[in-house]
Amino acid sequence: MPLKQMHPTFQKMNVVSLSCRFCDNLVCQRGMKAILLADTKVELYSTDFQPQGAICSVGNEYSTANCKCMIQDTACLKCGNVVGYHVISACKPCLQSCNNGHYWMFHSSSVVGMERVDFTGSHVLLWSDLPSSMAEEERLLEDYYNSLEECCR
Q1: 106, 44 Cβ separation under 8 angstroms
Q2: Looking at the domain covering 3-152, what would its CATH class be?
């Protein structure tokens, strides 16, 4: 879901980086704290793009007892532990609920979240601050890490 179409409530959410709890591998730079639509007692993290080079789909597709969404587990590419799942096909009740449009989920028990700051380093980054394309996000992150590298020399 493009950021401009995202509900204003979600645009005000903090952006978090997610690392695998088992091996500390960075698995996502565009995370958001979320709740499971089918069971609002379950807290997790979500993202809008598949994190490239960090996770992969494992196992067969399945649905849960709480809803009819078709999902598939995802695992950390570094250690192989399951860290979340991908919603392959959302069910009608979930689509009709107020949602953030994210289909890549991470279990709170499998990842560690850390709030990201903007490029000045002084403010927590909000979802409304993110570029709407992953390519632009990757370019900005690369520029940021290059500036850090030059600063450390």
Answers
A1: yes
A2: mainly beta
Distances, alpha carbon 150 to alpha carbons 71, 92, 141, 144, 153, in Å? 42, 50, 14, 10, 5
Structural domain boundaries in the chain: 3-152
Residue of 25, 13, 42, 14 whose CA lies nearest to 105: 42
Find the helix or strand (DSSP H, E) in which 44 lies. strand 39-47
CB 7 within 8 A of CB 135: no
* Closest-CA residue to 21 (of 103, 69, 83, 75): 83
pLDDT score for 90: 87
pLDDT attached to residue 64: 83
Contact call for residues 34 and 102 (beta carbons, < 8 A): yes
Judged on CB neighbours under 10 Å (0-12, 13-18, 19+), 20 is buried
What is the rounded CA–CA span in Å between residue 34 and residue 36? 7
Ranges of the chain with pLDDT below 50: 1-4
